[in-house]
Specification:
alpha+beta; 3-stranded mixed beta sheet; 2 helices; flat
Length: 98
């Protein structure tokens, strides 16, 4: 998982998008995910403004607002599942109504 975290971090960095290495890192990341999926390890897909699922998400930050309640605002660290078991929760920031 730390390798995937490092690759994701590199891909999220706006400064790296202009570099030629970005494409290679993106391909390596996708290849690594595909290898894990062959062994039934899958990334937990999290959409912005999707509902918080405490069985898959770990809240590490709460953002007060006036519109959304228990909706995911951002993902700090991806989570992963092995078959139907969570092996690492997705660490997320959640919107809460004041």
């Amino acid at each position: 998982m730390p390798i995937l975290d490092s690759l994701e971090s590199c891909l999220k960095n706006e400064n790296n998008r202009n570099e030629k290495n970005y494409i290679g890192i993106k391909l390596l990341y996708k290849m690594f995910l595909s290898i894990l999926e062959k062994y039934s390890v899958k990334k937990i897909h999290v959409d912005k403004y999707s509902h918080l699922d405490p069985l898959k998400h770990e809240v590490i930050s709460i953002i007060k607002n006036n519109i959304y309640d228990n909706k995911i605002f951002s993902v700090y660290q991806s989570g992963y599942m092995f078959h139907k078991n969570v092996i690492r929760y997705a660490k997320v920031a959640v919107l809460k109504i004041n």
